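Please fill in the sequence for the structure shown.

STRUCTURE ENCODING:
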């Protein structure tokens, strides 16, 4: 029988949110266990395939103001946190370049009007710059002469997703986080069988937590929506030493909009499809053709790129496409989810709020969901009492977070 060890916090899921939270909590002095169904490389997570663009303005063309605000706060946190990790992680804030083929000009008006409608006007004024063809070539010499117009969204960021996952984990482990890998499908109730007893459980299982997010009644007469659903995303990872792009480039297109995110060593992530589907089978030929043709239309040197990976993952998505933190004070369970297509953009601010709630629970504060760090994001954090089927409580014992 597995001997049971006691921890302050057990974190379920070592994807993006789980690693960020483990790193923060252990540095605050908590004894942390991290339990993951997959392996330390994170290959079972959405975070592993992500382009990891940190683009609040570009995303505001399809997202709400809440995402822009969380994104701005999170990019500041990434900048500070990555600098504290002992391993360097590729991170840049050189902006996003947006381009379109001449026949798709209408897409640009749509894009800019959506950005203006959602983002704070001062941010738009500061960061959005119209470019002529010469300007496009100055920003990205590889695209000189290829696009008569473009937009530079200055200051937007990007990081190396796999490098960040690796560095966060190795730092968390060196600070004392206890990890259990290849644990299978873990939930709150099964922790003791993995040798873990915890005063608080933080659920960061992404789509793996679906059973803990029950269906919600639909709005405006629509039927019930799943509390958490997967949105299929397909990406291609290529090696393209002849391309030489320095920052993420988005190609506007009425049917096949794509982004191309450069990674270290001439690697590029080309993505991404977004399909309302729970299917996690391999990338379809249609999607691969669309992504690669669009990349080739952006720069012909992609024709000589080598395809390294074709990846699929599903983005964990709430009915309103916004992140949520649920706090069951009595059961001492905190659940973070719904990072959707913005996990890298917003996870630092979201997990910072979740960790503040966890600390409040460890300190036996009576309304943990209402600590100041949580109130900063009204509506994101909800106090709940889960049904017995969901709320298998961890063993609670009192004591302050040291
Ligand atoms: C194709 C694609 C491109 C993306 N591009 C970007 C981008 O450019 N910018 C951006 O901001 N975001 C992007 N995202 C979104 C981002 O990757 C996700 O929002 C983020 O990874 C979600 O983080 P998470 O920790 O909630 O889930 P995940 O990262 O998926 O981690 C969940 C972890 O929990 C583990 N787990 C699940 N169930 C269990 C269980 N029962 N027991 C134990 N462990 C379990 C999983 O194995 C996994 O390791 C992209 C996503 C996709 C799919």
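FILLED IN BY: designer on duty
SEQUENCE:
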């Amino acid at each position: 029988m597995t001997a049971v060890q006691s921890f302050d916090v057990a974190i379920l899921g070592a994807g993006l949110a789980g690693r960020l939270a483990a790193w923060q909590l252990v540095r605050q002095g908590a004894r942390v266990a991290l339990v993951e169904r997959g392996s330390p490389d994170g290959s079972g997570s959405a975070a592993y395939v992500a382009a990891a663009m940190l683009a609040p303005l570009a995303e505001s063309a399809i997202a709400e103001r809440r995402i822009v605000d969380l994104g701005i706060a999170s990019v500041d946190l990434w900048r500070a946190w990555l600098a504290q990790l002992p391993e360097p992680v590729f991170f840049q804030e050189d902006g996003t370049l947006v381009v379109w083929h001449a026949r798709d000009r209408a897409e640009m008006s749509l894009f800019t009007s959506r950005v203006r409608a959602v983002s704070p006007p001062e941010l738009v004024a500061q960061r959005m710059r119209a470019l002529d063809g010469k300007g496009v070539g100055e920003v990205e010499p590889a695209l000189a002469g290829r696009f008569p117009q473009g937009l530079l969204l200055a200051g937007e960021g990007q990081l190396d997703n796999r490098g960040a996952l690796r560095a966060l984990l190795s730092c968390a482990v060196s600070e004392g986080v206890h990890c259990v890998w290849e644990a299978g499908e873990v939930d709150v109730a099964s922790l003791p069988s993995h040798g873990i007893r915890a005063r608080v459980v933080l659920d960061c299982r992404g789509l793996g937590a679906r059973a803990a997010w029950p269906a919600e009644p639909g709005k405006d007469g629509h039927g019930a929506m799943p509390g958490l659903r997967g949105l299929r995303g397909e990406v291609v990872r290529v090696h393209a030493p002849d391309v030489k792009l320095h920052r993420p480039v988005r190609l506007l297109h009425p049917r096949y909009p794509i982004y191309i995110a450069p990674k270290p060593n001439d690697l590029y992530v080309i993505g991404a499809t977004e399909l309302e589907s729970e299917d996690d089978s391999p990338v379809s030929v249609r999607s691969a053709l669309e992504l690669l043709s669009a990349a080739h239309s952006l720069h012909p040197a992609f024709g000589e790129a080598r395809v390294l990976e074709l990846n699929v993952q599903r983005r964990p998505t709430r009915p309103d496409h916004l992140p949520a933190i649920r706090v069951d004070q009595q059961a001492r369970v905190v659940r973070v989810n719904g990072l959707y297509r913005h996990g890298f953009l917003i996870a630092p601010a979201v997990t910072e709020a979740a960790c503040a709630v966890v600390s409040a629970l460890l300190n036996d504060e009576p309304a943990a969901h209402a600590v100041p760090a949580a109130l900063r994001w009204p509506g994101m954090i909800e106090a709940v009492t889960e049904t017995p089927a969901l709320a298998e409580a961890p063993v609670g014992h009192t004591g302050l977070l040291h």
